[in-house]
Design brief:
635 residues, alpha+beta, Rossmann fold, 5 domains, 8-stranded mixed sheet, 39 strands
């Protein structure tokens, strides 16, 4: 016999305190005697307080005994008294329930595999001794506890009923590490780690698989998936033709037999590509196609798999409209700048005369050798401005000066022209924070000034100098435009992939500080770089934007991640339900009966003694049970 909720000291403290109060109330004399008189004429209201005196003995000991007994029974129910010896054999178990994307598949009978996993988990829980506690853990790409260590079987079955499959694959290594850590840190007496699932795991899960724990038990579910599905869909604009899109798809056969399936691609509902794909078992097959469009819309690809997992038979992507940057050129000789600026298809160029100048133009303004009445309100490129109107102070004028590029600055990247002499150029006075791109002996002649409104100043006209025939001229303009509008020259790739671990190959070694991996809610996702491979994890469907230098990759992670590998566990592991749990606990919980008995005892005390004149007692001295009549005294 032992207490489950309270310690013996706590029980004795509560019982002693409440019993003492009850006894004191019985010893306190507040009773009034009943006098029968012929008339109230000679009586008046007494202003004297009621006199209290302590009794030397208890008038009704049986009433006190019944009240104390009822209170003791209610306290025993509160302490959850159990009959028998304290169970030392109860254990704590961790039940890993496979909730990966493979669980959405259906077996030959048309029943979802997740239902079979729930059935296996319920059977295991019901086979355990009633005192054993179980923690249910949702196992997919992550490990998430759905309950604490719980002995209530209805609560555990309710948690299993609310389980649903996720779009990620099972990461077995992560789930086993989580279960071992929970048992080590929180279990009173560690029991088993139980995995109920189909054992289809991701490559990351098998690579990071630790040594299998000795207390691991498997409840396998047969999942021979004859499934074909998309792993990736990617599109990008052709470099030479902005209306041409290049697309590629990757399809995998997860089954055990070769298949040949029709493949279809449509943009805005109109077919753009059809072919038949030969898919050997366990192999990724890639296909490429092109289509042309000027407008935004949805590209959709399909395979007619008719398999157990239809969620990956279709992939879609939204293609955006190509943004164009407005550039206004104020020049009396626009033909000089047209060859330089027309090379970029993302520029929407407007040429105007200086007399048409407006300060509030949108985009970027190019001022060719003239003095505007007011400074522009946007980013501006000044070409050979008059010394009195230059946004950067002119220090001097140089003649026949040798030009040197500042290749140590990112803005001068790719500039390699040598032995170039400028017939005439303005030399600027650089301030703190200014970025020199080119210089002569006297100082910088091409200068970029950062700020809220970015400014670039040329001390000479490139198309009226020896640089007119140099490749450095379009490159320096491109560098300045990229610096003013970083997204202008950014290569955008759009792809549809599966949730979970995502790997992106990098073209070269890059500074990790310049990489941004942003989820669709604006939060930055953690990532790792190894062997020019960038990896990050996305547990839920959504859009992730990856920015690396001048490359932007938009990943629409809406495909399920199907476990590629069918894990074959060692034959030495325990499987099934043989030997589950231990001996059933000998202790019995009787708090319900104690509570009922306590209420009945108090009710009997009330029926036996409560209908007479009010008697002392802790339950009948409350304000709502007092029956103090006004006292009167004889005049």
């Amino acid at each position: 016999m032992f207490f489950f909720n309270l310690s013996p000291a706590e029980f004795l403290f509560l019982l002693t305190g409440i019993s003492s109060v009850t006894v004191v109330l019985y010893l306190l004399d507040r009773s009034r005697r009943k006098h029968v008189v012929s008339s109230l004429r000679f009586w008046q209201q007494s202003d004297l307080p009621a006199q209290r005196k302590h009794r030397r003995k208890i008038q009704q000991p049986w009433s006190l005994i019944l009240q104390l007994l009822g209170i003791a029974l209610l306290l025993l129910a509160l302490a959850q008294l159990r009959l028998g010896s304290r169970d030392r054999n109860s254990r704590d178990h961790v039940l890993l329930v496979d909730a990966s994307s493979a669980m959405t598949a259906r077996n030959a009978a048309g029943r979802p595999l997740l239902d079979e996993v729930r059935t296996s988990a319920r059977r295991y829980i019901r086979a355990l001794p009633s005192a054993d506690r179980v923690m249910i853990v949702r196992a997919d790409g992550m490990a998430t506890s759905m309950t604490s260590f719980e002995s209530s079987r209805p609560a555990l079955e309710t948690a299993l009923a609310g389980l649903s499959a996720s779009p990620s694959a099972l990461n077995l290594g992560l789930s086993l590490e989580f279960a071992e850590r929970v048992l080590r840190l929180h279990a009173k007496r560690p029991g088993e780690i139980v995995l109920a699932g189909a054992n289809r795991i991701s490559p990351e899960g098998i690579q990071d698989l630790p040594a299998l724990p000795s207390n691991l038990r498997l409840l396998p579910v047969d999942a021979e998936l004859e499934n074909v599905g998309f792993r990736k869909l990617g599109v990008r604009r052709a470099p030479a033709d902005p209306e041409l899109w290049e697309a590629y798809v990757t399809v995998r056969n997860y089954g055990t037999r070769a298949r040949t399936l029709p493949f279809q691609a449509a943009f805005g509902g109109a077919p753009v590509a059809t072919r038949r794909l030969d898919l050997p078992p366990g192999v990724d097959v890639s296909a490429q196609f092109e289509f042309r469009t000027k407008v935004s819309g949805w590209i959709e690809v399909r395979v007619d798999g008719k398999d157990a997992l239809p969620d990956d038979d279709r992939a879609t992507l939204e293609l955006p409209v190509e943004e164009r940057l407005p550039v206004t050129v104020y020049s009396n000789e626009p033909e000089l700048l047209k060859p330089v600026l027309a090379a970029n298809r993302r520029l929407e160029i407007t040429y105007k005369k200086p007399a048409e100048y407006k300060a509030d133009e949108k985009g970027i303004v190019v001022l060719d050798r003239f003095r505007p009445p007011t400074a522009p309100t946007t980013d501006a490129i000044w070409i050979q401005p008059p010394a009195a109107a230059s946004p950067v102070p002119v220090k001097s004028e140089a003649q026949n000066a040798a030009l040197r590029w500042r290749n140590d600055q990112p803005l001068a990247a790719g500039l390699r022209a040598r032995d170039a002499k400028l017939e005439s150029t303005s030399v600027f006075t650089a301030a703190a924070g200014d970025i020199p791109l080119a210089e002569v002996d006297g100082g910088p002649v091409i200068l970029a000034r950062p700020g809220e409104k970015k400014t670039a100043v040329f001390g000479f006209h490139p198309m009226r100098s020896v640089l007119r025939y140099e490749l450095a001229t379009p490159i320096v303009f491109a560098n300045v435009l990229r610096w003013m509008q970083p997204g202008l020259f950014r290569r955008i790739e759009i792809q549809a992939g599966s949730v979970g671990a995502v790997t992106v190959p990098l073209e070269s070694d890059v500074d990790p500080a310049s990489i941004r991996v942003l989820a669709d809610n604006g939060l930055q996702l953690p990532f790792t770089i190894r062997d020019r491979q960038l990896r990050f994890f996305s547990p839920a469907p959504g859009t992730v934007r990856l920015t690396v230098g001048d490359r932007e990759l938009v990943s629409s992670l809406n495909l399920p991640e199907v476990g590629e590998i069918r894990w074959q566990p060692p034959k030495t592991l325990r499987t099934g339900y043989r030997g589950v749990g231990g001996p059933e606990s000998s202790a019995r919980d009787i708090w319900q009966w104690l509570a009922i008995a306590g209420v009945l005892v108090l009710l009997a005390e009330f029926l036996l003694f409560g209908r007479k004149a009010p008697q002392p007692g802790i339950l009948r001295t409350m304000p709502w049970n007092r029956n103090d009549e006004p006292r009167r005294k004889a005049s």
